[in-house]
Amino acid sequence: MEQVGVNSLVVALLTASFTGMVMVLQTGVQLARFQSENMTPGIASLALLREIAPVLTSLAIAARVGAAITAEIGTMKVTEQLDALESMGTDPVQYLVVPRLVAAMVMLPLLTILTDLVGILGGCLVGVTKLGITFHYYLDITFQCVKIEDFMSGVLKTVVFGAIIAIIGCYTGFTSKGGAEGVGVATTRSVVASFILILVSDYFLTEILLKVI
After folding, report:
1. Which of 4, 5, 48, 169 is deepest in the core (most CB within 10 A)?
2. For every one of its 213 residues, what pLDDT tens digit does the chain have, with 9 covering 90 and above?
3. What are the φ/ψ torsions at residue 176 (nearest 5 degrees)?
4. Angle CA(202)–CA(22)–CA(107) in degrees, nearest 5?
């Protein structure tokens, strides 16, 4: 859990803060063309909570943690440490996969909650300093537009994204072969597969959650 959560905190928060800033800046400038810039806080916060923060946080964790999982298990595979575990009567899946799966499914939603908060605050900073929106007005419009369902939608997605990252990372690690070069190839394959599956599953999860929540 430390690897997925604490060690990934800086990357996730930096990603969220600047994403929130860019979202508000772009949204504010474009809405100003239609004299609707007063809706900037609500629109930017909705997009951030429902889509941007969960997906970008998951992609960042996939690149960092998913690659690390594959490299670690892949190295154990090519150095026959997995065979050693089996010879001692230890189930490699129970010993290596389950803890990583649980950690990813628990810590990624918690990280996303923090990135939601930091992203909104980053957007608020730009709204106040660049767009002339007052702090109280920004928060007032945000709370008017954003409902608990919007927040929960993004957090629930990351439970699935966490499972994808852990399962893909472990699978590519277990199936790696060919020494150090093979581990490198497996690591790249793990990150690419995680990215694609996160983006594809995001569409279907969005479609389901819009009907359910």
Report:
1. 169
2. 666 667 788 889 999 999 999 999 999 999 999 988 899 999 999 999 999 999 999 999 999 999 999 999 999 999 989 989 989 989 999 999 999 999 999 999 999 999 999 999 999 999 999 999 999 999 999 999 999 999 999 999 999 999 999 999 999 999 998 888 999 999 999 999 999 999 999 999 999 999 987
3. -70, 150
4. 45
